[in-house]
Every structure is written in structure tokens, then in C-alpha cells.
Amino acid sequence: MSKVVTLQEFIMEKQADFPFASGELSRLLYDIVFASKVVSRDVRKAGLVDHILGAQGNTNVQGEEQQKLDVVADEQFIHVFKNGAEVCGIASEENDDCVIFDDEKGRNGKYVVLFDPLDGSSNIDVNVSIGTIFSIYRRKSEVGTVAVEEDFLQPGHEQVAAGYVLYGSSTMLVYTTGRGVNGFTLDPSIGEFCLSHPNMKMPEIGRIYAMNEGNIHICNPGIKKYVEYCQSDENQTGKPYSGRYIGSLVADFHRNLIKGGIYIYPATTNDPNGKLRLMYECNPLAFIAEQAGGLASTGFERILSVQPEKLHQRVPYFVGSKLMVEKALSLLEKE
Ligand code: AHM
Ligand code: MG
């Protein structure tokens, strides 16, 4: 019988490669693993528990209705970050401003975490896959002081780690620290994430495109040309691609990471910067995509190079297999 490697063991092994490192990033990753298990448990019983399923009645900073489970997940992650001693502040989709931990532990934390506690939340009530996305940066301000907004507004290429948890037919956690991408599946019988997808590589080309085609007439004409190209047999594979759009970025991204494909959320005339948030949706998945051999772009700039100006900034997003993203970008009309 081959040995099962748990996520905890994997993090510990990687930590041993850096004997002089303090282990704080490893401890922060353990905290994320723990919170993910709790949220996974809550997601799994969402349909059974009235007070979890359904709308909370509040709207978040982007004017979207918060689902109860969004709030539950947000609070769970904030709780573990606040109680660990590694994080000096967080920012999330559900909070208007960054949340600074100004107690002694917080002031001594080295890292900031930006996260989307439950992405694809409109899918909760209909039992479709959803996910958590996280992005970790080393703070810019001095350790021992209270964190400031500049600690959060760093370009994606400064990320020290990023990942996502997919609450799908099984729960998976996929992450990178800049040395490749590894995927772990939660075994509910033992409550452990086990290494199931070592050293993940995104195929250079796939046969799946994912986009909300309802927007096709209100975006750059190059997108329509690209979608027609995907649907024709003149494309790079000689057969029409399959259109697959779950409406949960994590799930669409994860499928494309494994099978090869492209995900597009372009700028539209209604939303000139697209819909997705740079800091806790686009950057972390761009880091993973690049680490797995894929690409991520706004259409005109590498996602990881975008200098953020605002916490909840939106950007147009093209992410996935290298050759597919390159082809889509080549058809875009200059703005
Ligand atoms: P959310 O964070 O409010 O759930 O919004 C992000 C989601 C993505 O997961 C998904 O790909 C996209 O919004 C779907 O948007 P649309 O319904 O406009 O196609
Ligand atoms: Mg989201």
C-alpha cells in the first residue's frame, strides 16, 4: 500500500527545506487548512440547516446580497487569522475596508491575507460547486507596528502563497508558494486533506471555453471573434470546443487547470472593468495558473503586474491554457 501524504505532512516537509525560516508561513497555511475543513463541513450541511441557507438580508460593499454562508465562511477565516500570530490584517470580499489586527499578536504578524470566503455564492442555494480563494503577502510596514493599507495594495507578483478550496463533488485544496502547484483532496472519513494531485500542470491547450455568453454583444468585438473561433473546426484542435460555464470561478478554473481550457470575464459596456476582483479572485488564480504553465491577463496586461489602487478593484480576466489565452488576446481590438 503506498503511503498517503497529508497536507499537514506536506507543509512540514516543505518547511524542512528552509531550516532557517521561522515557520510562520507554514503555521498560516495550517490555519487555512483548519478553516477550510470547518467551512467545508458547513457547506456540506447547508441544505439541512435553515439558518445557514439563504440570504442574510445585508448587501456587501459591491451592492450584492450577502448569503448567510458567505458570512459564516468570512467569520470563520477571520477567526483563525486573528487567533494565529502570523497575520497583521485581512481584506475580504465581504468587508468594505481591510480589517487590521491591532492587538500585540496582530502587530507582530508578518503577513496579510486577502480572500474571497465563498466565491460563486449565487450557486449556494442551488447546490452547485462553490469555493474559497486566498492570497498571502508579506507586509511592507515594519513588524511590531499596526498594518496599513499599503500592506494590502501590492501587485500579484509579490504574493508569497495563494490557493483555493473547491467545495465540489469532493472538497479540494490547491495551493502554490511559487514552487509549483499541488492539490489535496479532503478524505471526510479521516478529516484530512491528502495529496491527490502532485505537481499540477495546466495543458498548453484544451478544448473548453468558459464565458457568460449572455455578455457577448456588450464586450470587445474580439471576444465574439474568439468565441466563433472556439465554435468552428478551424481552431487549433480542428474540432469545435465545448462551452462550459459553471458560474463559480473556482470550479471553472479548476476544471481548466486539469483538462486545459480558458475562462474569460471581459470588460463590458455595463461593467467597463469586468466583474471579478483583482486582489482576491484574479491574482491568486493567476499565480496558480502561471505556476502550472498557464497565463492570466487583463487582455492588455499580465494580471500579476497590475499595480492595485483599490482593495475591491475589478479587472477584465482571461485565464487558462497558454495557447488559448494567447489566441484570445491576439484577436482583441485595441481600446
Ligand atoms: P461572487 O464572488 O459574488 O460569487 O462573484 C464572482 C462570480 C464568479 O465565481 C463567476 O465566475 C462569476 O461571478 C459569474 O458571474 P456572471 O453571473 O455575471 O456570469
Ligand atoms: Mg467572488
Which helices and strands, and how do they pair?
Elements: H1 7-16, H2 24-44, E1 55-59, E2 65-67, H3 68-83, E3 87-92, E4 99-100, H4 104-107, E5 111-119, E6 130-138, E7 161-167, E8 171-176, E9 181-187, E10 192-197, E11 208-211, H5 221-231, E12 242-243, H6 249-259, E13 262-265, H7 278-291, E14 295-297, E15 317-320, H8 322-331
Parallel strand pairs: 3-5, 11-12, 11-13
Antiparallel strand pairs: 1-2, 3-4, 5-6, 6-7, 7-8, 8-9, 9-10, 13-15, 14-15
This protein binds 2,5-anhydro-1,6-di-O-phosphono-D-mannitol (AHM) and magnesium ion.
Magnesium ion binds next to strand 5.
EC number: 3.1.3.11
Family: Belongs to the FBPase class 1 family.
Binding site for Mg(2+) 1: 93, 116, 118
Terminal CA distance reads 58 Å
- CATH T-level topology of the largest domain: Fructose-1,6-Bisphosphatase, Chain A, domain 1
Q: What's the Cα radius of gyration?
A: 19 Å
Order of helices and strands: HHEEHEEHEEEEEEEHEHEHEEH
What's the architecture of the largest domain in CATH terms?
Answer: 2-Layer Sandwich
Q: What's the arrangement of strands in the largest beta sheet?
A: 4-3-5-6-7-8-9-10
What share of residues is helical?
25-40%
The DSSP helix count reads: 8
The domain count comes to 2
